[in-house]
Specification:
With 130 residues, this protein is mainly alpha-helical. It folds into two domains: 1-80; 81-130. The protein is built from four helices and no strands. Helix 2 (13-36) runs antiparallel to helix 3 (41-75). The longest helix is centred in the C-terminal third of the chain and has 46 residues, at 83-128.
Length: 130
């Protein structure tokens, strides 16, 4: 599933929770004022039912998200980088490190040869002088 589709589907879960609680509360309040004589029981029961419905929707969305994630992982579509890609990245990094080590060794050898030739040249120059 694409990131935008997931955000659209699961981004409204908090709104659903609040909406369920509000509908339960105001529905119970309406029943209280019109049918139960303003005793408050309808409001309390409506609020509790709204909260229960909201959390039920929240848990259902979480389970659905978990199932979709597991399905995508099984199919290999949920992970942005599959095992083959990660292995190739590791292989490339190892080859790059080996190439860097070889370059460092070559640079060290070149410096040693340059120092050796410089010291040989200076020894020959000093030998010509009395």
């Amino acid at each position: 599933m694409s990131a935008w589709k997931g955000m659209g589907r699961y981004g409204t879960v908090g709104f659903d929770l609040l909406l369920s609680m509000a509908i339960g509360f105001y529905g119970g309040r309406y029943l209280d004022t019109h049918y139960f004589g303003n005793k408050g029981w309808g409001t309390i029961i409506g609020a509790v039912l709204g909260i229960a419905a909201g959390f039920r929707n929240l848990f259902r969305a979480a389970k659905m998200m978990e199932r979709e994630t597991a399905r995508e992982d099984r199919e290999g579509t949920g992970v942005p980088y599959g095992d083959e890609y990660l292995e190739s990245v590791d292989r490339d990094a190892k080859q790059a490190q080996e190439a860097q080590n070889a370059q460092n060794a070559q640079n060290a050898q070149d410096k040693a040869d340059a120092a050796k030739s410089t010291s040989t040249d200076s020894d020959a120059t000093n030998a010509d002088k009395p």
